[in-house]
Amino acid sequence: MAGSNKFVNSKVKVKWQEIEVYVPSAKNYYKIKEVVGIEVL
């Protein structure tokens, strides 16, 4: 996280994909969003 101050007040574009994963504690499948890309504008 060092040097992250240069991104303060910057706009970013986040790309994600929705995937279905099994959660053993819930014994069920759930859809989650997985970040696949970040672009600083």
Give the tally of β-strands: 2
Strand order of the largest sheet: 1-2
Give the N-to-C terminal Cα separation. 19 Å
For the biggest sheet, the summary is: 2 strands, antiparallel
What does this structure look like?
- By secondary structure, this protein is mainly β.
- Helix content is 0%, strand content 61%.
- It is elongated, with a radius of gyration of 15 Å.
Provide a short characterization of the protein structure:
This protein has 41 residues and is an all-beta fold.
Keywords:
mainly beta, 2 strands, 0% helix, elongated
Give the helices and strands, then pairings.
Layout: E1 12-23, E2 28-40
